[in-house]
Amino acid sequence: MHARRRTSSAGAAQRGFFLIEALIAILIFSLGVLGLVAMGGAAIAAQSDAQYRTEAAALADEIASKISLNVDRYNTANLYPNTAASIAATLAPFEHQPGGNNCAFTGAASADPVVQAWVTKISSAGGLPGATDTSQQIRILTTNAGDFNRVSVTICWQAPSDRAVRQHTLITYVN
């Protein structure tokens, strides 16, 4: 004879409880994995942004150095020239789209080959994403006493994941 097991009402209530516990544990684990995936995406976006900012800073420093190296500090017509006037006169050709602000630049593009090569480098396929020939600016201030021979370089770009245009500005003085 087979013995029958008696089931109480308490035993019947616990029959499916382990399955519910397992489903809840899987749900919590899945949410944790999804959170890690989202953090990974945010980390990659932050790394890309940092890389573009570093590249923009290096490009701005590059053109500022080239401008400083290519400025005529000595007027060859005079033996002892007024170097301030010589610098101010030879900085003007480096100006590139001096009007406008907030990455909406206007004005004439520089005819200087050094500046043209620099603008092409930024807006080419290997440059900054979303950068164009018209999204770069070099302003030269030579008249104000406090801003004498001030060179301001602004670079703008927009990565595909960016909601707004990014910009980097470098200000230096050429003496």
Write up what this structure looks like.
Helix content is 45%, strand content 16%. The relative contact order is 0.13. The radius of gyration is 32 Å and the shape is rod-shaped. The chain has one domain. It has helices at 9-13, 17-70, 83-91, 113-123; strands spanning 99-101, 104-106, 136-141, 150-157, 166-173. It has 175 residues and is an alpha+beta fold. A 3-stranded antiparallel beta sheet has the order 3-4-5, with helices on one face.
Q: What's the structural blueprint in terms of helices and strands?
A:
Elements: H1 9-13, H2 17-70, H3 83-91, E1 99-101, E2 104-106, H4 113-123, E3 136-141, E4 150-157, E5 166-173
Antiparallel strand pairs: 1-2, 3-4, 4-5
Helix pairs in contact: 2-4
Kindly list the characteristics that best describe this protein.
175 residues; 45% helix; 16% strand; 4 helices; 5 strands; alpha+beta; three-stranded antiparallel beta sheet; two-stranded antiparallel sheet; single chain
Summary?
With 175 residues, the protein is α+β, with helices and mostly antiparallel strands. The protein contains 4 helices and 5 strands; from the N terminus they run αααββαβββ.
Tell me the distance between the termini.
Answer: 110 Å
User: In order across it, which strands form the biggest sheet?
Assistant: 3-4-5
Rg calculated over all Cα atoms: 32 Å
What fraction of residues sit in β-strands?
A: 15-25%
> Sheet with the most strands?
3 strands, antiparallel
Q: List unreliable stretches of 5+ residues.
A: none
Query: What is the chains' assembly state?
Result: single chain
Average pLDDT taken over every residue: 84
How many helices does DSSP assign?
Answer: 4
| Tally of distinct domains | 1
The gross shape turns out to be rod-shaped
Return the string of H and E elements. Answer: HHHEEHEEE
Helix content: 40-55%
The helix/strand class is alpha+beta
Q: Give a count of the beta strands, DSSP E runs of length 2 or more.
A: 5
